[in-house]
Design brief:
389 residues, mainly alpha, 2 domains, globular, membrane, MFS_dom
């Protein structure tokens, strides 16, 4: 009998190889060295998001029908190829090509990894451990990103391109980890084997299952808010005059805070309960946006850390709600719907915030993003929370 718990350390390695990101802390500096600015940064990340959007739901369907292992292997290979392209590119459209490959690669991993984790635990009758394990894997990813920030700070002494060479090597570590995964039996009555069935299943799930619909929308809105904030951090560093060699150090500290809070996410939810956990995340993330926006100075780091601590709580808690309300045969698809919404929303708002950052002020970009999040998250969650009292 297969021991599906063996999948967990392999999922850790896939997460770490994806999140040990030595290039993210210096992307704005790298683009500036190639004649680009904040606006181009957000446009390129919007292109990445569109690539994810195009493949997100089809890749979730492929994971549910063909197997999560196969899509994780494909995603790992494409993730490595994207950084190889970046390593030898020097202008906008070449960077765009790399972002497209990376985006497609991510779409094959996102959703499939969480679905494989949940069904591995389900096969071993341990689904009650999901929030804890998702939190720990998320934490491992954030600790990896934190350490990568330090490494990035060391590598930029050679050149701003050196981290990309090393990033390619790290990304390839996911490939053998994906090949050695054990595919659990999906606990389903019927698989979704056609696009028509896929669309029907998504429609039925989202229309008839209010809990699932709200869980996906709330998790997606929060994911969009945290992704947007992450890309505003580098302009924040530039605006306060942070020395380039310290970008990686402060990036490390922020991601360590996410890693720490992710570990305790399940305990926080047990203590607060579902309703107060949801409200706390929405309020605190919004305050992080507002106060970071009015404190573009070294004092503003307090609010950056506040935001990142809450971000560490939000991801495993909200993902768990999606898993609780969905069935195994469409679990990867539903998680992909979440990621689809995140990338679609970011593709729409990202370039606007980049333009505001370059042409109006970083302050206004933070405040606008915060207002959009609190209005949207409140509109989605309040009716649901009232019924959950």
């Amino acid at each position: 009998m297969a021991n599906f718990s063996k999948n967990i350390p392999r999922l850790y390695l896939i997460k770490i190889s994806k999140w040990f990101n030595m290039v993210m802390p210096i992307m704005l500096l790298f683009y500036k060295s190639n004649g680009l600015g904040s606006y181009e940064l957000f446009v390129l990340k919007a292109i990445y998001s569109v690539a994810v959007v195009i493949m997100e739901i089809p890749s979730g369907w492929m994971a549910d029908v063909w197997g999560r292992k196969k899509t994780l292997i494909l995603g790992s290979i494409l993730g490595s190829l994207g950084f190889l392209i970046y390593s030898f590119s020097y202008e906008f459209w070449a960077f765009a090509a790399a972002e497209i490959v990376l985006g497609i690669g991510l779409s094959f991993i996102s959703g499939a990894d969480s679905a494989l984790l949940y069904d591995s635990l389900k096969a071993d009758n341990k689904t009650d451990k999901y929030t804890r394990e998702e939190g720990r894997i998320t934490s491992a990813g954030n600790f990896a990103e934190a350490i990568a920030g330090v490494v990035s700070g060391l590598l930029v002494y050679f050149s701003l391109r050196t981290p990309f060479y090393f990033q390619f090597g790290v990304a390839t570590l996911a490939i053998p980890a994906a090949f050695t995964l054990i595919e659990p039996k999906v606990h389903a009555v019927e698989h979704v084997h056609s696009i028509r069935k896929l669309i029907k299943n998504i429609k039925n799930s989202l229309v008839s299952n209010t809990n699932l619909r709200v869980a996906i929308l709330l998790s997606a809105l929060t994911g969009t808010a945290t992704l947007t904030f992450a890309w505003l951090v580098q302009p924040f560093f530039v605006a306060i005059g942070l020395p380039e060699e310290l970008f990686g150090i402060f990036w490390t500290a922020l991601n360590l805070s996410v890693g720490i809070s992710s570990v305790f996410a399940y305990k926080v939810e047990l203590f607060l309960g579902k309703r107060r956990s949801v409200l706390a995340v929405i309020v605190l993330l919004s305050l992080g946006y507002f106060f970071a926006g009015i404190s573009i100075s070294y004092y503003g780091f307090v609010f950056l850390f506040l935001f990142y601590l809450v971000r560490g709580l939000a991801t495993p808690i909200f993902k768990n709600y999606i898993n609780l309300y969905t069935d195994s045969e469409v679990r990867a698809t539903m998680l992909s719907v979440r990621n689809f919404i995140i990338r679609m929303a970011f593709a729409g708002i990202g370039p606007l915030l980049g333009w505001i950052t370059d042409n109006v002020s970083l302050n206004k970009a933070f405040l606008l993003a915060g207002i959009i999040y609190i209005v949207a998250a409140t509109a989605v969650s309040l009716p649901w929370l009232r019924t959950k009292r």
